[in-house]
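Q: What would this complex look like in 3D?
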Amino acid sequence: MIEKVLIANRGEIALRVIRTCNALGIRTVAVYSDEDYNSSHVKKADESYHIGEAAPAKSYLNQEKILEVMLASGANAVHPGYGFLSENDDFARLCEKNKITFIGPSADSMNLCGDKMVCKAAMLKAQVPTVPGSPGLVRDAEDAAKVANDIGYPVMLKSVYGGGGRGIRIVTNDKELHEGFQTVTSESIAAVGKSAIIVEKFLKKTRHIEYQMCRDHHGNAVHLFERECSIQRRNQKLIEQTPSPVVDDAKREEIGEIVVRAAEAVDYTNLGTAEFLRADNGEFYFIEINARLQVEHPISEMVSGLDFVKLQIDIANGEPLPFKQKDLRMNGYAIECRINAEDTFLDFAPSTGPVPDVTIPAGPNVRCDTYLYPGCTVSPFYDSLMAKLCTWGPTFEESRTRMLTALSDMYVEGVETSIPLYKTILNSEEYKKGELSTDFLKRYDMIDRLTEDLKKEKEEKSDAALAAAVIHSEYFKSRAQNGGTSSATWKNKLD
Ligand code: ADP
Ligand code: ADP
Ligand code: MG
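A: Here is my prediction, written as structure tokens for the whole assembly.
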């Protein structure tokens, strides 16, 4: 039985895992780098251990060091979160070898899922539809060009080891293909030390729709509905929602059955996600399995009423799933906005540094998973994701308007955030109507619209701010005349 969990991660996901462990009476062990000695996950865990320098390779990716802490602390399980070692089958195997429960799929299954080509081949065998493309790896750029000319440009070059939007490129002709081949190769080598490339037909005006899957060690498998993650930048998700506006009950069941087959095809255990692209003609094509807890899992928790980390722990403990597919009902509508520390106007470049002040939204049906606290720091060494702001409503419209309120309530001092962009997107007619596609931002000129919105807001604000400043200065003047002391902080704010 899992009694003490080491969380091999940082940031909001480390806190997320700690919360469920606390609720279940399981002790927690945090690990941290030089950069993170003051981070929230260190403060919240029962124990914490320093594991090295700021650079991930010297700390959060250091398997030997993390194993050392597991053995020293007596943790009998590890939760890898997402990113870092979460999809590293060598690490899962290292844990298995040391009799430490890895909360996730088996090392073998993870190895299968981690290679986009091997996984695609397994899916083809299980009659799961996949995106048309090269039958296997392409040897070199020449070989890739031959495939591209056969299936027709544009095509997508993908490193089979890529992830998080890295190691993939769209190319539209032979010249771009040769350049793209080099970029994908070097990106993949930089990230994981190796590269192998497949070619896929590039699907235009497509939606990213993924299914949460769940399978125990006794062969029971279900899907926990879909999430639509079509609002992306650089092939990375920004806003997710469930249900998808284009998936009705019949479609949910149809694809859901395919997802269960997919999980069985790779002998997947624990929670995972099967990602699909939905072409404009309504066809679904499998793209990959994410063999871990997904960033956007909270919205599925909101509509299913389940705690996914608890479910992960129960499955890892060998317990059978407590429900069957027919017992599961989807309730209401949920949206997640990934609050990133980045500058929308600088091509989403990371924005890092101290955060002197922060306001976390609250209220009915609002959930904000975050590592932020006043006085914390957004580090340049790690992911730009600071917070996951989620809202729920009995109707899509209510979850959308609650999200707009929550976005307005959220304030992060010191860094640029994606909040203004999300307000523009959520207010757009296209978003309201559910006209989503992975090129949404470009297709509907969202950055230009954001510029317009900010200009308008600035004009309105400057009038209001002027009026407020006059009132405040009169107030402080009268307090000073009456012998009262005004706090230096407040005075500074007014200056
Ligand atoms: P999700 O759908 O859960 O967001 P992503 O593929 O976007 O999955 O990845 C989640 C996080 O994991 C990303 O924010 C990224 O930081 C990290 N990540 C995923 N794959 C890689 C990789 N190959 N190299 C570095 N970081 C990665
Ligand atoms: P990663 O491992 O980085 O998550 P994926 O294969 O899941 O890579 O693809 C990430 C995103 O890239 C998708 O959500 C989609 O927007 C886009 N994409 C991937 N494959 C294709 C394709 N064949 N055609 C069009 N877009 C694609
Ligand atoms: Mg993906």
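A: To summarize the key features: The mean pLDDT is 95. Residues 247 and 469 are 51 Å apart (CA to CA).
Q: Very helpful, thank you.
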